[in-house]
UniProtKB/TrEMBL annotation:
InterPro entries referenced in this protein's UniProt entry, alphabetically: AB_hydrolase_fold, Esterase-like, Mycobacterial_A85_antigen
Descriptive protein name: Putative esterase
Transmembrane parts of this sequence: 28-49, 70-93
Keywords of this entry: Membrane, Transmembrane, Transmembrane helix
Superkingdom classification of source: Bacteria
Pfam families in the record: Esterase
Upper lineage: Bacteria, Bacillati, Actinomycetota, Actinomycetes, Micrococcales
Species of origin: Salana multivorans
Length: 383
């Protein structure tokens, strides 16, 4: 793996600001306090019930009825405590703001509405848009979430407006396009890195890589040859041109992903260096997994998307690649390390670094800032 010196060091103020959004929703102290409160409340309700019974002899029906408050509290409180414990492990909701954004994205907002415009002048804006695909691509209706940085002026004329590089974000499986903004807290991360002058302002685009037909919930960004969705074509031929047509972009793009989305970032980025100038892959797989048979009809087609098979053969390019390891097995680490060496041999700067946090959104949030900064610096997009 890369020596520690290759890993960018963030300014202390940036580290502090990034850590400030890791709130009580992901703390085990919260789980412990919730469990203690639920237990105390249940015991209190049971004690009150016994006290009432000591003053009379209600029938069996009333006795059963009086147990309901304690039973209901135990069930509801237990469910809440379990939910908090699961969130402490996977880190899907790092803060109340992330929970709010997820609720807005999945339960209330339609395309064209704002997901967030947070915290005043130093914050970017996130809005959902509908990027329709041709019927032949068999893509389901979805919302693409787009972050524009502080100071972005959509009303300025072409000659006067600033232009921005684009960060394309791929979620994991299962997942949705909202994941990077809720679980990944990416708007906050970008706000901090931009405000602290660590990276240049960017436009960020989170698309939905779910499909229809075979392999619908785990497409790995592939074009199906088994009757399903054409996800790669949708991304490259529809989403990317849409963003360039509707936003002030420079034409420079970085593709980033977590888990299955990291495989997507590597596979798409390495096979399309003309579209993606840099790659951030957090906890990546090197092959399409089950999608090799659900999305692809033949073994030969699957081999064309096996990164370990083709990494050494990609055309030379100055295309920085940052790979974050999150609790992979020894065999997986060896395979990814081999790929990193092969990519370096093609002229690509490669960062390979192990982060803590496990294969969870907690781990992904911890790895994302420095891996993004590494790629941005290699591309001259960092200050």
């Amino acid at each position: 793996m890369s020596p520690v010196s290759d890993l960018p060091t963030l300014p202390p103020t940036a580290r502090l600001a990034l850590g400030a959004d890791e709130g009580w929703l992901t703390s085990w102290w919260t789980v412990a306090v919730a469990a203690a409160l639920v237990l105390a409340l249940v015991l209190l309700l049971l004690a009150l019930g016994r006290r009432r019974r000591s003053h009379g002899s209600p029938g069996p029906g009333r006795r059963h009825h009086r147990r309901w408050p304690a039973a209901t509290t135990a069930v509801a409180g237990g469910a809440l405590t379990l939910a908090l414990a699961v969130n402490a492990v996977v880190g899907y909701f790092p803060s109340l703001g992330a929970l709010r954004d997820w609720s807005a994205a999945n339960l209330t907002l339609d395309a064209g509405q704002h997901l967030a415009a947070v915290d005043g002048d130093g914050a970017g804006t996130v809005a959902g848009v509908d990027v329709p695909a041709p019927a032949a691509m068999a893509m389901p209706a979805s919302t693409t979430w787009i972050y524009t940085p502080p100071g972005y002026d959509a009303t300025a004329s072409d000659g006067q407006r600033s232009r921005y590089p684009v960060l394309v974000l791929a979620h994991g499986s299962p997942g949705t396009s909202a994941d990077w903004f809720s679980a990944g807290d990416v708007a906050h991360v970008l706000d901090v890195l931009i405000d602290e002058h660590v990276i240049d302002p960017v436009v960020a685009v989170a698309f939905d890589l779910n499909g229809t037909g075979p392999g619908a919930d785990d497409t790995e960004c592939l074009d199906s040859t088994t009757g399903g969705s054409q996800v790669e074509s949708y991304l490259d031929q529809v989403v990317v041109p849409y963003v360039d047509a509707h936003y002030a972009t420079t034409g420079t793009r970085v593709i980033a992903g977590f888990s299955a989305g990291a495989y997507c970032a590597l596979d798409q980025g390495l096979r399309h260096p003309d579209l993606y100038a840099g790659i951030v892959a957090i906890a990546p797989y090197l092959d399409p997994g089950e999608a090799a048979t659900t999305m692809l009809a033949t073994a030969a087609q699957a081999q064309q998307h096996d990164i370990a098979r083709y990494a050494a053969t990609v055309a030379p390019a100055h295309q920085p690649v940052a790979i974050a390891l999150l609790d992979e097995s020894q065999d997986e680490v060896r395979a990814i390390t081999d790929v990193a060496h092969e990519l370096r041999a093609t002229g690509r700067p490669v960062l390979l670094h192990a982060f803590s946090g496990g294969h969870t959104w907690t781990g992904a949030r911890g790895a994302f800032p420095q891996t993004l900064v590494y790629v941005a610096r290699e591309l001259g997009l960092a200050r």
